[in-house]
Input
Amino acid sequence: MKTWIMALMLAAAAPLGAQSFQPGSQDLMKKRDADANLPPSPYAAKPLPELKGVVSWKTLADVKTLKQKDRFIPDFGKSVSALDRQEVRLQGFMMPLEMGDRQKRFLLVALPPTCSFCMPGGPEQVVEVRAKTPVKYGFEPIVVSGRLALLRDDEMGLYYRLTDAAPVGK
Output
Protein backbone atom coordinates (compact mmCIF):
# COMPACT_ATOMS: atom_id res chain seq x y z
CA MET A 1 0.00 0.00 0.00
CA LYS A 2 2.88 2.37 0.79
CA THR A 3 4.29 1.90 -2.71
CA TRP A 4 0.94 2.78 -4.31
CA ILE A 5 0.84 5.99 -2.28
CA MET A 6 4.42 6.79 -3.28
CA ALA A 7 3.50 6.29 -6.94
CA LEU A 8 0.60 8.70 -6.54
CA MET A 9 2.82 11.31 -4.96
CA LEU A 10 5.42 11.00 -7.73
CA ALA A 11 2.75 11.18 -10.43
CA ALA A 12 1.21 14.25 -8.85
CA ALA A 13 4.51 16.08 -8.48
CA ALA A 14 5.73 15.52 -12.06
CA PRO A 15 3.42 18.03 -13.79
CA LEU A 16 4.68 20.78 -11.53
CA GLY A 17 7.91 20.85 -13.50
CA ALA A 18 11.08 22.14 -11.95
CA GLN A 19 9.20 24.49 -9.64
CA SER A 20 9.30 23.72 -5.99
CA PHE A 21 6.49 24.91 -3.76
CA GLN A 22 6.84 25.36 -0.06
CA PRO A 23 3.68 24.92 2.03
CA GLY A 24 2.13 28.32 2.64
CA SER A 25 4.29 30.00 0.00
CA GLN A 26 2.92 32.69 -2.28
CA ASP A 27 3.69 30.51 -5.34
CA LEU A 28 1.55 27.70 -3.97
CA MET A 29 -1.30 30.11 -3.29
CA LYS A 30 -1.06 31.50 -6.83
CA LYS A 31 -1.10 27.96 -8.26
CA ARG A 32 -4.16 27.04 -6.20
CA ASP A 33 -5.97 30.22 -7.25
CA ALA A 34 -5.06 29.65 -10.91
CA ASP A 35 -6.39 26.07 -10.74
CA ALA A 36 -9.65 27.34 -9.24
CA ASN A 37 -10.16 29.62 -12.25
CA LEU A 38 -9.72 26.87 -14.85
CA PRO A 39 -12.86 25.92 -16.75
CA PRO A 40 -14.17 22.45 -15.92
CA SER A 41 -13.11 19.71 -18.30
CA PRO A 42 -15.87 18.65 -20.72
CA TYR A 43 -14.85 15.05 -19.93
CA ALA A 44 -15.32 15.31 -16.16
CA ALA A 45 -19.11 14.85 -16.16
CA LYS A 46 -19.18 11.62 -18.17
CA PRO A 47 -16.84 8.82 -19.17
CA LEU A 48 -15.05 8.90 -22.50
CA PRO A 49 -17.13 7.53 -25.37
CA GLU A 50 -16.23 3.99 -26.37
CA LEU A 51 -14.35 3.75 -29.67
CA LYS A 52 -14.39 0.86 -32.09
CA GLY A 53 -11.18 -1.16 -31.82
CA VAL A 54 -10.25 0.43 -28.49
CA VAL A 55 -10.39 -1.57 -25.25
CA SER A 56 -12.88 0.14 -22.94
CA TRP A 57 -12.31 1.04 -19.33
CA LYS A 58 -15.36 -1.10 -18.54
CA THR A 59 -13.41 -4.11 -19.80
CA LEU A 60 -10.34 -3.19 -17.72
CA ALA A 61 -12.62 -2.90 -14.68
CA ASP A 62 -13.25 -6.67 -14.88
CA VAL A 63 -10.92 -7.29 -11.93
CA LYS A 64 -11.45 -7.99 -8.26
CA THR A 65 -9.04 -7.37 -5.43
CA LEU A 66 -8.26 -10.36 -3.23
CA LYS A 67 -6.46 -10.34 0.10
CA GLN A 68 -3.58 -12.81 0.14
CA LYS A 69 -1.77 -12.98 3.48
CA ASP A 70 -0.72 -9.40 4.19
CA ARG A 71 -1.21 -8.05 0.63
CA PHE A 72 -3.91 -7.34 -1.91
CA ILE A 73 -3.62 -8.84 -5.39
CA PRO A 74 -5.72 -8.47 -8.54
CA ASP A 75 -7.94 -11.32 -9.74
CA PHE A 76 -8.56 -10.61 -13.43
CA GLY A 77 -11.81 -11.66 -15.08
CA LYS A 78 -11.94 -13.65 -18.33
CA SER A 79 -12.46 -10.59 -20.55
CA VAL A 80 -9.27 -8.95 -19.22
CA SER A 81 -7.22 -12.15 -19.01
CA ALA A 82 -7.74 -12.67 -22.75
CA LEU A 83 -5.91 -9.37 -23.39
CA ASP A 84 -2.70 -10.32 -21.56
CA ARG A 85 0.35 -9.94 -23.85
CA GLN A 86 -1.90 -8.83 -26.73
CA GLU A 87 -1.55 -5.76 -28.93
CA VAL A 88 -4.35 -3.37 -27.89
CA ARG A 89 -5.48 0.22 -28.21
CA LEU A 90 -6.41 2.23 -25.12
CA GLN A 91 -7.96 5.67 -24.75
CA GLY A 92 -7.43 7.97 -21.80
CA PHE A 93 -5.75 11.01 -20.30
CA MET A 94 -2.00 11.38 -19.84
CA MET A 95 -0.55 11.89 -16.37
CA PRO A 96 3.18 12.63 -16.72
CA LEU A 97 5.78 10.81 -14.66
CA GLU A 98 8.74 12.74 -16.05
CA MET A 99 9.65 16.38 -16.60
CA GLY A 100 9.01 18.00 -19.96
CA ASP A 101 6.32 18.34 -22.58
CA ARG A 102 7.13 14.97 -24.18
CA GLN A 103 6.70 11.81 -22.16
CA LYS A 104 8.24 8.41 -22.80
CA ARG A 105 6.79 6.94 -19.58
CA PHE A 106 3.45 8.11 -18.21
CA LEU A 107 0.17 6.98 -16.72
CA LEU A 108 -2.92 6.70 -18.90
CA VAL A 109 -6.03 7.23 -16.79
CA ALA A 110 -9.74 6.80 -17.44
CA LEU A 111 -10.83 10.19 -16.06
CA PRO A 112 -9.26 13.61 -16.52
CA PRO A 113 -6.99 14.68 -13.67
CA THR A 114 -8.70 17.44 -11.70
CA CYS A 115 -6.05 17.92 -9.05
CA SER A 116 -2.26 17.86 -9.26
CA PHE A 117 -2.16 15.79 -6.08
CA CYS A 118 -4.97 13.26 -6.68
CA MET A 119 -5.30 10.12 -8.75
CA PRO A 120 -8.52 10.20 -10.78
CA GLY A 121 -9.40 6.55 -10.13
CA GLY A 122 -8.41 3.23 -8.66
CA PRO A 123 -5.78 0.80 -9.99
CA GLU A 124 -8.26 -0.61 -12.54
CA GLN A 125 -8.44 2.89 -14.12
CA VAL A 126 -4.67 3.39 -14.50
CA VAL A 127 -2.27 1.98 -17.10
CA GLU A 128 1.47 2.58 -17.00
CA VAL A 129 2.58 3.40 -20.55
CA ARG A 130 6.11 2.93 -21.83
CA ALA A 131 6.25 4.53 -25.27
CA LYS A 132 8.66 3.73 -28.11
CA THR A 133 9.21 7.44 -28.65
CA PRO A 134 8.21 10.40 -26.47
CA VAL A 135 4.55 11.45 -26.70
CA LYS A 136 3.52 15.11 -26.53
CA TYR A 137 1.72 15.94 -23.28
CA GLY A 138 -1.75 17.44 -23.52
CA PHE A 139 -5.03 17.76 -21.66
CA GLU A 140 -7.18 16.08 -24.32
CA PRO A 141 -7.76 12.32 -24.36
CA ILE A 142 -5.36 10.27 -26.48
CA VAL A 143 -5.39 6.79 -27.98
CA VAL A 144 -2.24 4.68 -27.69
CA SER A 145 -1.42 1.26 -29.08
CA GLY A 146 0.94 -1.26 -27.55
CA ARG A 147 1.35 -4.63 -25.87
CA LEU A 148 -0.75 -4.95 -22.70
CA ALA A 149 0.64 -6.78 -19.69
CA LEU A 150 -1.49 -7.75 -16.70
CA LEU A 151 0.51 -7.14 -13.54
CA ARG A 152 -0.27 -9.65 -10.83
CA ASP A 153 2.39 -8.63 -8.33
CA ASP A 154 3.56 -5.10 -9.18
CA GLU A 155 5.47 -3.41 -6.37
CA MET A 156 3.75 -0.07 -7.15
CA GLY A 157 0.26 -1.58 -7.01
CA LEU A 158 -0.41 -1.20 -10.73
CA TYR A 159 -2.63 -3.68 -12.57
CA TYR A 160 -1.73 -2.82 -16.18
CA ARG A 161 1.29 -1.83 -18.29
CA LEU A 162 1.38 -0.98 -22.00
CA THR A 163 4.81 -1.41 -23.62
CA ASP A 164 6.18 -0.45 -27.05
CA ALA A 165 3.36 2.07 -27.13
CA ALA A 166 2.71 4.70 -29.76
CA PRO A 167 -0.06 7.27 -30.17
CA VAL A 168 -2.65 6.58 -32.87
CA GLY A 169 -5.36 8.71 -34.44
CA LYS A 170 -8.90 8.19 -33.20
